[in-house]
Amino acid sequence: MKRELELILDSTHDAMIAVDIDGVITLYNRAAEKLTHFSADHVIGKNITEVIENTRLPHIMISGQAELDQKQQLGNTEIITNRMPVKDKNGHIIGAIAVFRDISEVAGLAEKITNLKQVRSMLEAIINATQDAISVVDENGYGILINPAYSRLTGYYDEDIIGKLSTVDLGDDGESIHLEVLRKQAPVTGLKFNVGLNRRDVYVSAAPIFENGELKGSVAVLQDFTETRRLSKELDQAKQIIRNLEAKYTFEDIKGENPVIINAIEKAKLAADTPATVLLQGESGTGKELFAHAIHNASDRKHSKFVRVNCMAINEGVLESELFGYSGGAFTGALKSGKAGYFEMADGGTIFLDEIGEISLATQAKLLRVLQEKEVVRVGDSKVIPVDVRVIAATNVDLEKAIEIKRFRKDLYYRLNVIPIKTPALREHKDDIKPLIISIIQKQNQVFGRSVRDLSDEALHVIEANDWPGNIRELENYIARAMINMRFNEIIITRSHLPIIDHQEVIQLPDKKIAKNFKASSLQDKMDLYEKQYIEKVLKLNQGNKVKTAETLEISIRNLYYKLNKHQIKE
């Protein structure tokens, strides 16, 4: 399906560029390559501002508003572009897309025609060959010419259009752009119309045709955005399916034999047998979401929905409507039919509210009401909707301190803290590091296609000497990086494979102390560094042969070129 979609997008005449929420280019079709003179392989993965300096896609994601039929200079080419935010079904902006084309040729043609009769045969040949939907009318607004692309788009043919008023292809709610052009005797751009037998949504631009200064007609170009909207809808549906998947983990996935982790597991198992609210507290990376999954899967709600909500990842301005839903017309941009919130979606199941300590006091008050009354009221509505939802909340914030500084409501804390469970930091149960590492190795073997079995005692001592402030999440990342440093035939992680532990502290080894003072940086930066070094090694091993290198790395040749460019590896 993905390949078919790529073929469709590459065959369209319209140039398309899509970015994700970080502004990173994720889609760059063949028409965009032709207009910008950049290849997709060169720009995919780059920030849009690095490729098109005057882009407004980042602004679109901030404003959330579409910009339609906007003129823009792209190098020496003038384009007309539609910029739209891409949202998931819940209204979250997850990126933006620009659909554009070079209009200078068609617009120039319309403005420079001086003798319609003499150039008609040439014009017909041109517009019949183009993939753009084009229609031409005379000075009175009656159709004189359409091209095959127009017929494909609207379902109307010569006998339906030629000699008839230009309103014939419109819906009931619009005036012909041709009539507007003839009235103003000037170009008109970016009007939205509903045209054709199937009433397809299009944007239309048109320009007048003059002969010796006398108005002789109008030519219009139609842009169909129905397909783009359909693809966005399918993406939203896919996001929703992913969100509503059942919880993935069980208590068997929680590794550890230390009393502190066993105690947390036992409390969680008891909590699973009740409908009571659970509050998971612990540092980042200690597995709070893993516990939430396990509790749901061990409860009598395991066959119902498990809805995960990261409260910190949702803009505070829309969090309330996302949690509790909204009625039709509740605010600008709201769906006419309204939308159910996460609590309604989780009815009969479990809702996991991660980062609960980050929500505002106003939203806390409304959440408290839901917990007390077991009912929600959508934003902009007065109707009470009963919900049967098991709530599991999680935070790495000390809520008692947050209460003291008036950042968290005491009454909400007591409602959430019915069954408190503390997920211990990894430094509190270091004797579980070895089984955790074995579990991580087994998982990463599937990701990397490796057969690693174990790690040496010396490597284990080095790892156990660290306090792991990022906890299990950091340990997983660290072991993955160590495995990247291994040759494909190596099955034991040794000390030589271990990356530098990048914390400004003294690392205790069995026989000595070695001071390590390194500038702190993100784990992703370190992963990129080791990925670069490993690719360089494999490339050298294959004597610069990129096809063999891609096969060894088990990635596509296109992906290899992307990584070579990303890491600035000399070919």
Q: What number of domains?
A: 4
Helix/strand structural class? alpha/beta
Number of strands: 21
Tell me the fraction of residues in β-strands, as a range: 15-25%
Write the layout of secondary structure elements.
Blueprint: H1 2-11, E1 15-20, E2 25-28, H2 30-36, H3 40-43, H4 48-51, H5 57-63, E3 67-74, E4 77-87, E5 93-102, H6 104-112, H7 116-129, E6 133-138, E7 143-146, H8 148-154, H9 158-161, H10 177-184, E8 188-195, E9 200-211, E10 214-224, H11 226-243, H12 259-272, E11 278-281, H13 288-297, E12 306-310, H14 316-324, H15 342-345, E13 350-354, H16 361-373, E14 375-377, E15 384-386, E16 390-395, H17 399-404, H18 410-416, E17 419-422, H19 433-448, E18 454-455, H20 457-464, H21 471-484, E19 492-493, E20 505-508, E21 513-516, H22 523-541, H23 546-553, H24 557-566
Parallel strand pairs: 11-16, 11-17, 12-13, 13-16, 18-19
Antiparallel strand pairs: 1-2, 1-5, 3-4, 4-5, 6-7, 6-10, 8-9, 9-10, 14-15, 20-21
Helix pairs in contact: 12-13, 16-18, 19-21, 21-22, 22-23, 23-24
Account of the protein in words:
- By secondary structure, the chain is of the alpha/beta class.
- It has four domains: 2-102, Beta-Lactamase; 105-228, Beta-Lactamase, CATH 3.30.450.20; 244-424, P-loop containing nucleotide triphosphate hydrolases (Rossmann fold), CATH 3.40.50; 429-565, Helicase, Ruva Protein, domain 3 (Orthogonal Bundle).
- The chain is built from 24 helices and 21 strands.
- The chain has a five-stranded antiparallel β-sheet. The chain has a five-stranded antiparallel β-sheet with strand order 7-6-10-9-8.
- A hairpin with a 4-residue loop joins β20 and β21 (513-516).
- α16 packs across α18, α21 packs parallel to α22 (523-541) and α22 packs across α23.
- The protein is flat and about 90 Å long.
- The protein starts with a helix and ends in a 5-residue tail after the last helix.
- Residues 503-518 have low confidence and may be disordered.
